[in-house]
Amino acid sequence: MALTTFVILVITVLLLAYLVAALLYPEKF
Q: Which GO MF terms are attached to this record (predicted)?
C-alpha cells in the first residue's frame, strides 16, 4: 500500500472519529 494512501486513510478515520464524538458529546465542542 502506498504511503499517501495510508496517510489519507488515517486522516479520514480521524475526521470520522471527530465527527462521531461531536455528535455524541456536543457539549464538549
A: hydrolase activity; P-type potassium transmembrane transporter activity
Looking at the 3D structure of the chain, how many domains does it have? 1
Phi, psi of 2 (to 5 degrees): -70, 150
Look at the block and give the residue holding cell 456536543: 26
Distance, CA of 29 to CA of 7 (rounded, Å): 25
Domain of 22 in residue numbering reads as 1-28
pTM of the entire structure?
0.66
Whether 14 and 6 have beta carbons less than 8 Å apart is answered as no
